[in-house]
Amino acid sequence: MRGKDVRLDQVSIRFGDSTAVQPTDLAIHAGEFFSILGPSGCGKTTLLRTISGFIEPTAGRVLIGGEDMAGKGPNERPTALIFQNLALFPLMSVAENVAFGLEARGMRKAERLKRAQELLELVALSGYGDKKPADLSGGQRQRVAIARALAVEPAVLLLDEPLSALDLKLRQHMRSELRAIQKRVGITFIYITHDQGEALAMSDRVAVMSRGKLEQVADADTLYAEPATPFVATFVGEQNVLRGTVAGLADTVAMVDTPIGRIEGRVKGPIRLGEEALLMVRPERIGLGSGGTNTVAARLAARNLEGPSVHLHCAAAGQTLIVTVPNGPSVRDLPEELTLSFGIDDALVYPVGALAHG
Amino acid sequence: MGSLARAYGRPLASVIAGIAVAWVLVLILVPLGAMVEQSLWWRESKGDISLTIDRLYNDISLIELDREAETDPAKKAAFDQSLADKQAEIATLEAQETNPPKTYGLANFTRMSGLHFYIFVRTIFYALLVTALALVVCYPVAYVVALASGPRKAVILMVALIVPYAINELLRVYAWLMILDYRGVINGVLQWMGFIDLDAREWIPFLENPSAVFLAMIYTYVLFMVFPMVNTLETLDRNQIEAARDLGASTFRIHRRVIIPHAKPGIAVGCIMTFMLSAGSYSVPAIMTRGQGGDWFSQLVYRQFYESNNWNMGSAYAVSLLVVCTAFILLMMRLFGVGLRDIAK
């Protein structure tokens, strides 16, 4: 099986008056594990259904392997879709499920059942062919759905939050499993999820989507360390958000007057002197003591033990700062009054924009 | 009963149990029992009994005449004796005539004439045909209704199904009679278009053909086919249809492999209901054929009851129909691999 690249060229989708996807350009490389991450209702499923052919874009083109997909139905595209609820055929056996796509292509029975066996082996389910989907566990059903989709030898596999129905342990296990299967078959995976853990753990690259628009397309590390917009910054991982006024601006460094004092940070967007801005610091980038450029005096309000790390809720000038520090003897007995500090590189300054959580 | 009492308390439990018993009695045991009992006996009435009585009365009149003319007292006494004998004989015969003795046996079932048996078989065959036609007509309708959503669905349901069924069944059948009659709507339209001339009796005799009954019957019972199918089709996960399409299946294959297997219990219920109703339908064939298109078995049952006044024979006919229909349904369920449990779902 060979992966193909997927390109969206100014694709926009409207349902009546409402815009589900704003004009979007996106290039997904062949053989890539690509995730589209966003809150529910952001248009990610619509985008996926457009690639699979269930929805025709209102404007723009979808190209798969360089070929324009306009007017081609889901059955004519080199894609296969794995549904959120898997949509296995409950009345067929597992092997028949897997072989269904081949049956539709007119392959002889003996041949297609043999192929189904091979695919079930690929997903470590050999010997389950005669069972009904209802007799399998959630994770096994998951793998049947993958085998069924792979049977038609798609160049692009589309996955619509297929792990959301599983419990946490199984979900984490299936992440690595999916990644391993993708490595083995080598085709393009496009994975839709609202779970940032899934997206960051599995993907080569992630697109963060909000309100029908792509906010940022980058690999997981970049996304986490260098979020391009306030939305991405707050949607991916935890963030301390402070509102303030830009008091000084030099090259890539800005000084922002916030309720907790004047803070220096890196500029991440078009801001101007005297205007309002958002300052963001990740909880794990704030340290105890006065080591960094920015120092804040705060009072310890609460201490939540998370196991390997400890979340400290600190109050400073009416604001709550969350600080995450590694667990250890030094954080067992902390004084009431703390000094917090972080560097210029740890604070990011954005123009005012939409946040992920209100 | 014990668990029922624990769940609801003794008074309420006995009320529930009482209702259940009453239900079984009133709906199943009493009517069926009465019918079966009726079919198992007959009254031995000799056909010549009234003739014999008539003849005896004649004899009495003659003897009375002879007796008037006779003067010999010894002979007169002989006449009196013979008169008394005849009158006693009449009394016993008349008692037999008004209340013939009951005999139990299976004769009512074995006495069916060849013609009636032919009508019986033909009725079953016609009912099957009606069921098959109704299935073909209803499946697409049920599919559209079940997969439509929101206000559109309500409109389709209302206009296509509920409104026609708010009209009384007899009225609807009569409406079809008017449409298909010699000088009915269709023939009228054909005349208006110049194809036929009604005044020259050039009409198309739709009503002399069994298909008129089929048409009216499908129209009458279509709802019983549609609703069970809609119910099961509504429970089909639409993602399955999309998944099948995404995997490259044609529309035909999607129906054959995914949708119809899922709808099978609904199809079975719809077919059973339509089959039972059409096999036992009286009004539709009676009105539509008006004696011109061949009887259905239900009409024979009616005649046994109300024209031959032979309730025992009528009951036997009715029971035979019931038994054959039930056996047939069980056979169909076997063939389609649908269990009672699937249907209950």
UniProtKB/TrEMBL annotation, chain B:
Domain of life: Bacteria
CDD domains tied to this protein: TM_PBP2 (cd06261)
Transmembrane intervals: 12-36, 124-148, 155-177, 212-230, 266-288, 316-336
Localisation: Cell membrane
Bilayer topology term: Multi-pass membrane protein
Keywords: Cell membrane, Membrane, Transmembrane, Transmembrane helix, Transport
InterPro entries named among the record's database cross-references: MetI-like, MetI-like_sf
Record-linked Gene3D superfamilies: MetI-like (1.10.3720.10)
Pfam family, one: BPD_transp_1
Matches recorded under PROSITE patterns: ABC_TM1
Coiled-coil positions: none
Boundaries of every ABC transmembrane type-1 domain copy: 120-334
PANTHER family attached to this UniProt entry: INNER MEMBRANE ABC TRANSPORTER PERMEASE PROTEIN YDCU-RELATED, INNER MEMBRANE ABC TRANSPORTER PERMEASE PROTEIN YDCU-RELATED-RELATED
Protein family (similarity comment): Belongs to the binding-protein-dependent transport system permease family. CysTW subfamily.
Protein name, UniProt field: Spermidine/putrescine transport system permease protein
